[in-house]
Amino acid sequence: MKQGRIVLNQQARRVTALADGKLLLDNGNPLADSPQWLAPASGTVYGVALNHRSLLEQLEADFQQPPYQKAPATPVLFIKPRNTHAGHGSAIALPTQAGKVFAGGALGVVLGKVASKVAVEQALEVVAGYTVVNEISLEETSFYRPAVKAKCRDGFCPMGPWQVDAAAIDPLNVEIRSYLNGELAETHHSRDWLRSVPQLIAALSQFMTLQPGDVIIPATPLRQLEIRPGDTVAVEIAGIGRLENRLIAEESAQ
């Protein structure tokens, strides 16, 4: 089943996709108009840096430099706070004076249960479903400590439009496709992740309790898809859906 969240009469409402593509409101009534989409989950979004093989290989020489002289041995985390969350179809404002901005097509793992000190073998039992994420970021200079200024700008984490049931997706076999202005620009696969979704849930829940509605972004690839105001960027995962957003200059959004 595919579920999403929309704004209707200034209230957040749940919608379900019917087999014919029509939308059904949470009160059972059909929705005739094109909705304003919200992110399908409203919890805390945790991203995992350096979990994609392409990124780690690209930075291998940098990791040998002082002071660390080795790649991180445990997951490097960052947070996409509530101000970054945006829905399908919303315009994302890009700062034109802050340097390069990159799209980051990714899977979003939506938690459905409280998760504390979960074993790898039971980790998928706490997953409610999956969604599509675009983890937008300014160009990064430190992967040991992802910068708040690069990751946490308003609207830099669009998600959706759908959350599909956990049983519908195998998180060990997911292909993420990113499009720029309608053209396929990047493809990457979960087989290139260094740690799997169950391993990440187990690792994170060892030191903090994850809540229903929280989202984990398991990995983003080497940043190559630069985006600019005027572009349209889309991220697509088979079985979940297509997340599309228009990019505008921050100055024009004020």
TrEMBL record:
What keywords are assigned to this protein?
Isomerase, Lyase, Metal-binding
- Give yes or no: UniProt keyword DNA-binding: no
Q: Where are its TM segments located? A: none
Q: Which residues form the signal peptide?
A: none
Q: Does the keyword Isomerase apply?
A: yes
The Fumarylacetoacetase-like C-terminal domain covers which part of the protein? 44-247
- SUPFAM superfamilies from the xrefs? FAH (SSF56529)
- What's its EC? 4.1.1.68, 5.3.3.-
Query: Which InterPro entries does the entry mention?
Result: Fumarylacetoacetase-like_C (IPR011234), Fumarylacetoacetase_C_sf (IPR036663), HPA_isomer/decarb_N (IPR012686)
Q: Cite a single GO MF annotation.
A: metal ion binding
Extract the NCBIfam families matched here.
HpaG-N-term
Q: What is this protein called?
A: 5-carboxymethyl-2-oxo-hex-3- ene-1,7-dioate decarboxylase
* Natural source organism: Aquitalea magnusonii
